[in-house]
Amino acid sequence: MTSIATIDPAEAAHFGKLAAEWWDPKGSSAMLHRLNPVRLSYLRAQLDEAWHLDPRERRPLAGRRALDVGCGAGLLSEPLARLGAAVTGLDAAPENIAVARTHAAGQGLAIDYRSGEVEQLAGERFDLVASMEVIEHVDNPAGFIAALAAVLADGGLLVLSTPNRTPLSKLALITIGEGFGMVPRGTHDHDKFLTPNELTALVERAGLIVTDAAGLSFDPRIGFTLSSNLALDYLLTARRV
Fold this sequence. Notes:
The chain contains seven helices and eight strands. It has 241 residues and is of the alpha/beta class. The chain has a single domain (9-239), classed as Vaccinia Virus protein VP39 (Rossmann fold). The two termini are 27 Å apart.
């Protein structure tokens, strides 16, 4: 969704059509709203550990730059800004960026939203690069990871999330999720999902060190939770040293 080498125009168009509903917690992005608190909890824990931050600090990213790749309408970008980061949000769909800018302005947040590819950021460096549920939508995963690594500062963190390529993910995300309207039809292609080993290999090939992986599981009683089970969806953290 985010580089000249990897962008899939059909994927960008698909998500662009959903732009108006990004901030509706009961709309087509409802699943992302449910996932977001868990992702943020994981991300904050990784930042605290890697950079020896105080978990009680309300703006731990003050003075740091963060890049949200495949930002949609800003569901992750806005919390990162509230944590003090100077945030750049990048998305291939101009419709998403338009909604993101409007929403951020209404929240009094100054976020640098851009529509385009990671390559256009050549020469810039970010302390944190996050890309949530994006790599499964690109045509060239290796090129995409290389582009993310290229803009990561020394000592910086790359945090990714993506579905695993398992029978469980196909059942949950496509058969049930898309089949029952919880996720818009056509959102996922199971063949493009990456296993943790495959993603780890791509990240290491790009010169980064993988420091953590955690699963995202679903409990009908409480919703999404962090888990040691990576079969459904997972988060991965890597660092440039």
